[in-house]
Amino acid sequence: MEVQSGLLAQADKQLISVVVHNLLSNAWKYTRPIEHPKVEVGSRKEAGRVVFFATDNSVGFDMAYAEKLFGAFQRPHSESEFEGTGIGLATVARIVRMHGGSV
To answer: Does 103 fall in a domain?
Structure first.
């Protein structure tokens, strides 16, 4: 796992911890079948704003369903493939929006 140094954000500590936990849990869960998993967390500037990201080389999903991933109980894979409730990314999206951001 690679984490960019110097990451800073103004946010509620408990809520942002939930965001980080959910994103990293998903990254580890979906990279489990990958021989050489790679997870990266960082930030970059886009259009004058700081954008935080968590990326991985997991099994992925069909980009046609990308918008649905952040809705409650939306899952790109069956529960027999990967465990979960389908609320983690919806929780992430809600907390990020509460802080004035977007996913």
So the answer is: no
Q: Which two tokens stand for residue 17?
A: 């911890």
Alpha-carbon distance 87 to 40, whole Å?
Answer: 22
Q: CATH no. for residue 90?
A: 3.30.565.10
Is the Cα torsion angle 1, 27, 25, 83 positive or negative in sign?
Answer: negative
pLDDT for residue 9: 93
Number of H helices, E strands in the chain: 2, 3
User: Measuring CA to CA, how many Å separate 93 from each of 1, 6, 20, 35, 73?
Assistant: 23, 23, 12, 29, 13
β-bridge pairing 49-56 and 39-46: antiparallel
Whether residue 18 is contained in a domain is answered as yes
- Predicted confidence (pLDDT) per residue in 18-55, tens digit: 999 999 988 888 788 889 999 999 999 999 999 999 99
